[in-house]
Amino acid sequence: MLRPVPVPWTNVYGLARTLLALGTLGTLAFSGTGTLFRPVATQGDYPICTGPMRAGVFCLAPENGLTATRWLCVLVLLVVASGWRPRWTALPHAWVSFSVFSGIAIADGGDQVTVVLSSLLALTALGDPRRWHWQTLAEGAAPSRRRAVLLGATGLVLVRVQMSFLYFQSCVAKLPHAEWADGTAMWYWGHSLAFGAPGPLQPLVNPVLASPLGVALLTWVPLVIEIGLAASLLLAQRWRWRLFAAGVLFHLSIAVMMGLWSFALAMIGGLVVLCFPLGSHLDVTLPEAVRGMLGRGTAVPDLPAGKDDGAKREGEDAKDAEYEREPVRHASSAGPSGRSAPPGTER
Q1: Sign of the alpha-carbon torsion through 15, 274, 225, 114
Q2: What proportions of the chain, in percent to the nearest 5, are helix, strand and coil?
Q3: Most buried residue, 25, 92, 195, 215, by CB count within 10 Å?
Q4: CB-based contacts of 275, cutoff 8 Å, min separation 6
Q5: What are the CA-CA distances from residue 96 to residues 76, 93, 109, 161, 242 (Å)?
Q6: Quick check: 189 and 197 in contact, CB under 8 A?
Q7: Across-strand partners of 5?
Q8: What is the tens place of the pLDDT at every residue in 165-216?
């Protein structure tokens, strides 16, 4: 018997979209126009508007309008990160991500990852009927959108496969290099003027780099984490949770040590989709004081789903509370109710 398709429109994929948008937003907001768009040796002046790169938003900007265009992109990314109308912001998000990767002089691997993931997540977001991607889906909405559910679930599966191959390639590509094989690679990275630990962290990092065992662990532990994440789709969910925690710690360490925050946010966004169960929903309970300030009694910071947002507030909240207790829902041809899987099967 075929398994039902998980409904993809949950706050889990919404969290991934927010992290991707924040990574690109940070690059644009905290880097000056002169840093982002400048000449690069052997390549020319950025933005380079040749071939497919001419479709980037910065190539369409007027000659003296790069700063205004940069802040317009920041505004778009703020809207994406907020979670508002994912079906409307899906394509602008992918376009801005492509424009940043192809149009700035300081693009890194995180920008490339963001282009791929935002494009794949657009398959999911384009069918998302919710007002905010933090909301729970309205009851009965999934069975009426079976094609969109299938397309959205396909997008999430493609993201998972992409992340798995990315970690596999990242690990395997290091192995032929002697420094990674003999466990000394991080000694060189740790003493690099460009990517070494910042001044405040050097008293903590330098003793580790001075120890052969410390250097070996810093070199080989990331390889173990990467190959584990590459194989995570073949493992039980309890192992995926552990690998998710290890992956988040790994990428945050890279961000703190090397300053690659946009890369870290992009990879953690991909990890969310890779390691969380398909169709799962995060139950977030706000502190009482925060809920009092917001004037809401729901367990998640969302607005009611559906067309008549203000007319049936109390009834909608009751439905949302019921759905939050059943985090994984499926679109099935068995009936129009869109019932969730038995509690506990998602973990």
Answers
A1: negative
A2: 60, 5, 35
A3: 25
A4: 229, 232, 240, 241, 243, 244, 247
A5: 8, 5, 16, 23, 33
A6: no
A7: 331
A8: 999 999 999 999 999 999 999 999 998 888 888 888 889 999 999 999 999 9
